[in-house]
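--- STAGE predict ---
source: upstream dedup step, 1 unique chain passed
mode: sequence only
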Amino acid sequence: MQYSFDWYVLWRYRESLWDGLVLTVELSLVALAAAIILGIIFGTMSSSKNRVFRALAASYVEVCRNIALLVHILFWYVCLASLRIPNFWCGVIGLAMHSGAYIAEIVRSGIQSVPLGQNEAALSSGLTRTQSMIFVIYPQSLRMVLPSLAGMFSQLIKDSSLASVIAVAELTFQAGKIEGETFRSFEAYCGISILYLIFITMITQSLQLVFYNRKQHKPEAFAK
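--- STAGE serialize ---
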């Protein structure tokens, strides 16, 4: 049987695809912000001298990294459904918990890459440990791990497609809707694939340009 393509279906459903793209961006940004907060908290705990903090951080990282993201999302959806939490926020929590574990390891490696002398110098100058972390350690470590965080953002955008299983109307959900109404599976999923590709490429190239410019201006700053 010969298949007849109908790409015009994408134009007919352009508003649905646009709404799905906007919701994908919102879902990814909110989940990323929550994941970064979790990552900084548990990444700092894993670098602490306190054994209890290190054990808690290690438990969080191991549990959340070794459970499939789809299971994360379904788990929080089932747990929070009785509380009438919107599906959007169930998806955010699932994505944030999963991605936060990876960001925690990135933050931990960034903190440990800062020379110990930096912290000792900050403490000897009269800063408290908290002030030393906020004003000395974090700025240096986060600058080192920014490229890795950018990569996590790109991954999180793709991972957000799994929120469609709990009826969050992002891009993948909209493609399923188009498929159900028109039976144009190939066109629908090709269309959202192109949107994902364009959106993630724009973000990746923009971030690479920022990092490149920062490196280009770094020698000048030291020269001054």
